[in-house]
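WARN retry 2 of 3 for item q-0093 after timeout on previous attempt; input resubmitted unchanged.
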Amino acid sequence: MDELIEDGGRRLVVGDRAGGEVDILGIGFGSSNLSLAIAIEEFNDRHPAGRRLTARFVDVRRQFGWHDGMLLPGATMQISFLKDLVSLRTPTSPFTFLNYLQEQGRLSDFINLKTFFPTRREFHGYLSWASLLSNVAVRAADILRAITDEQPASQPDHHANQQRLPAAIRTDPR
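OK item q-0093 returned
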């Protein structure tokens, strides 16, 4: 069973695999890896326990941030809101920008703006909302120092038909 831990406004999930082994390790937790994490979460929601993926993300920041220095008043996105975290993959996902607007009570106001380009501040709010809504395993406030293969040579490789990837990460507190 996974253990849910609260840390600085970010939920951390510690998997139940021996040694903390995961299927996917993401370095950094910006919008691309957030989108990947949501895709994994939605995949897992549709599959039985034996077919679910495990993932962990490592990021130096304690809280999600997206282009923090570029959130100028009135600055708009250069791409359509339809290119959010999930709409092109799963338009009915609860993680869409439109669902974010609905939950914030802003859907009608946004539609009346007659634009496909939200402000950068509003899109940042959407990304932050999605990062808190998801059950993503993020190890925050660490500096990645090394990714090493810590499997002893005498231990059998149960994934012989798969590409061998590093099994452990070492991080140091900031």
